[in-house]
Amino acid sequence: MTTDLNDILDDLSPQRQANIAALAEKKIQETLASASTLSEFRKAMGKTQAEVARELGINQNAVSQLEQRSDTYVSTLRRFLKSLDLTLEMSVVNKNGVRIDLPNFLKTDTESPH
């Protein structure tokens, strides 16, 4: 009989389960903070290309191609990140270091993306 990881976790005390969950979340946040490619974001969120493809309604090969592109539509990038439970926000920074949010790129799910 094979032991499932969830069975092992279920046998731990609630405090130990909470500690493991907190450490796992911390590791995800650290990995996300250092991610610089779409595939790194996907991996940090623990998703496969096939899972992202299903959510986006495309095939796995299309996800692979998207991850390798150096240029993509903002709407495509937004959809990809949304499939990872991430939100794309855009801003510009002027030469003095002042950050200016681009509100038309901060649309909610109910509004049409750009």
TrEMBL record:
Name this protein carries in UniProt: XRE family transcriptional regulator
CDD domains linked to this entry: HTH_XRE
Domain HTH cro/C1-type intervals: 38-91
SUPFAM superfamilies to which the protein is assigned, alphabetical: lambda repressor-like DNA-binding domains
Family matches, as Pfam families: HTH_37
PROSITE patterns according to UniProt: HTH_CROC1
UniProt superkingdom: Bacteria
Alphabetized InterPro entries for the sequence: Cro/C1-type_HTH, HigA2-like_HTH, Lambda_DNA-bd_dom_sf
